[in-house]
């Protein structure tokens, strides 16, 4: 970046004006966006969905390898993912930022360009928020508002005995991307003109730095006239999310190790690092894939759908939650996951 | 506090369970609250309002004199205030927390007890959010969702030439409360058993530590069948907010120094500190009073309303924004306000 402007030169309102000028209004439910005490939304005949996520520098992201534009994109997308996971459509977001003195206006422009790009691609309106000072580092807190037709909302609590457990995409790749980025960060320490080694592992880096929400899967399910009985997005790892569904639905489950979808690059990276591949797929976070259950009679339909894999089935509650390993052993599922608080 | 529990003992989900258990559902628009990817709200025939605010330790609050329960109460109330300022009713909030290692579960219980109390008093449902680790200090980010009848929403942009400018309550007291608390903090440094001197200034302390949103004023205006032409809540100081209204409405304004409502304790404190009283009332932040404009024909009605003062009138844009001092001088209004970014 060439020219850097101190945030204090613009002041709070100048900064908000700059960050939010020329925002498009995509959704008819967006009556009034940035520029008042609150945004005004209008939803005549649907359910309104709300989701919030906070990302903190040093905890959720490392600006050494996370460009600010990517961070903005990711912060928006993870919130969209929460709304899709309810079988809804994200419509509006509010963005609250805490910004320490080392950030310039150009930094925030970069962050917002990522947020705007995500909004454009997913058809979401940026309608408000708050920008304030922070003592140390960057804090990004996003709330997303979405909607769903009456009775279309899918929660975590509707899974039934014999339902099939499905996941989209593949698991563990975002976690392996993080391991790779951390490794190259350590390797680069103190070296000038360091070139990180990402060849053959570009997919892992992309999964970590630029995740997507599975809008396409939601659309496909609608096309096929399948309404999942329960659904959740995988942000803390398959194991943790599946336990959420089973706890809320008062069921147990069985999943099969050999059915968990894992990308080739994830497997290679796990091998290189001497890490257990299945552990990474079960407990690595930030996949933002969809985990959902469908009634048994949907079996043929979901088996044919591209990008969806049936990995097991729901059981009665007293059978507990377990994975059947390749050698037939039952391993109880644990939520060791991706827990930023532990 | 006697028993202290490390947050890591509960983990993220245990903590959320604890913080959100037994939440009442006050509003029929709250279909589903905490415990899924997103809350589900339903608004059949009204406008939906959304407002977000972020409070950061060391910037917006000092835990030396701000008890956590008060902080929670205040963080919720300032968001409610934004929804009232649109002539709406707050219905739901989501709470995102960033928490550093020095905070225990009991600390968060105290914070949440204040949030819950505010929700109870104002009739708002807590429907979700996010709790995560932070590297330094506490971050509280709240988003409030509210509603208003169709065509009831009042923005900043509807003020017209000759409209009367009104404010609720009194101004500058929260700012003077902050000065008092800071003074006593400095005086107490290094002293054991220090007793701060708040006698005769309890109102100032309360205005800073436990502000209220003017739900009552919104109700009174409705009773009197007055719909303001524009409205805003005073969080950054009268001067700054009035400039917002005039800018959005393409108008100017004249307010009268001798009509600005100031409490006796505020005046005493300004005297003690050798500060300009009117500057404090114009630019001191966090009053959370309502500033609004009404058509001239409402003059008799608003003059009679308790807790509301007419302080001036709206003019054509080319006349600019100014205060008429006691000696008849015109002073241009400036937004030097309460700017956390400057």
Topology diagram in text:
Two copies of one chain form a homodimer.
Chain A: H1 7-20, E1 30-32, E2 39-42, E3 46-56, H2 68-84, E4 89-99, H3 105-122, E5 125-133, E6 139-149, E7 164-168, H4 173-188, H5 202-209, H6 215-223, E8 230-234, H7 238-249, E9 251-256, H8 264-273, H9 277-283, E10 289-294, H10 299-304, E11 308-316, E12 321-324, E13 330-332
Parallel strand pairs in A: 4-5, 9-12
Antiparallel strand pairs in A: 1-2, 3-6, 4-6, 7-10, 7-11, 8-10, 9-11, 12-13
Helix pairs in contact in A: 1-3, 2-3, 4-5, 4-8
Structural summary, described in words:
The structure is a homodimer of 342-residue chains. In chain A, 34% of the residues lie in helices and 25% in strands. The first copy, chain A, contains 10 helices and 13 strands. In chain A, the strands form 3 sheets. Chain A has a 7-stranded mixed β-sheet with strand order 8-10-7-11-9-12-13, with helices on both faces. In chain A, α2 packs parallel to α3 and α4 packs across α5. Chain A is globular. The model of chain A has no long low-confidence stretch (mean pLDDT 89). Chains A and B meet through α1, β2, β3, α2 and β4 of A and α1, β2, β3, α2 and β4 of B. β2 of chain A pairs antiparallel with β3 of chain B.
